[in-house]
Design a protein that fits this description.
alpha/beta; 2-enoyl-CoA Hydratase, Chain A, domain 1; 4-stranded mixed beta sheet; ClpP/crotonase-like_dom_sf; Enoyl-CoA_hydra/iso; Enoyl-CoA_hyd/isom_CS; Enoyl-CoA hydratase/isomerase family protein; isomerase activity
Amino acid sequence: MIDIDDQGDVRVVTLDRADRRNAITLAGLEALKVAVRDPPTPVIYLRGSGVAFCAGADLETVGSLATEGGVEPFVRQGQRTADAIESSPATVIAGIDGAARGGGIELALACDLRVATLDATFGEPGVTFGLFGSWGGTVRLPEIVGMGDALDFSLSGRVLDAEEALRIGLISRIVDDPRSVAEEVADNDPAALRHIKARIRDRGDKEDKEAAEIESFRTLVETHAEKLQQFGE
């Protein structure tokens, strides 16, 4: 259910299960983790096929967890996949056109950028049937939108349109073609992209982060010294 297509500087990763609105299974999570782990491109564009981005976890899979004792492996697999997206050396951009629900929201939260069309909608419906997002969503959501909006979004179970998602910071842009943002980012220097992501994503203490920032900047200056001198002439 995961399709990979390397196109120039962008790896297009498609959640390809349109008949189930791209609901993701354990096998799909593993395939997605592999797709983002060590790509040959500086940018990954994550999208869904058909009319949805991702409806979340496959409910047939979820429904079998209690009887099969598979709750922890299922949650851990989702967490590992989201962590792989977050820690990928590539800049990962979620292009959201249509519905993003539950686990689909959590996969998008792990991406570096979330861009959407006006047709995109967002919801955490788990609360309506007694669940919640457990693939790191309760950690990432308040970091991205703030505690108040995170609680409102998660506890109400309401669906946000693209404009409200933009207002609370769940997405960063509304565009006609989300793929164009991936191309825009890919036009930049690949090494700079890697270092910027690593520094902004760094969760160490302030002193360690500042030291790492110096080293990253030093590496880039040394790499591009000749080009920088030409710019200065």
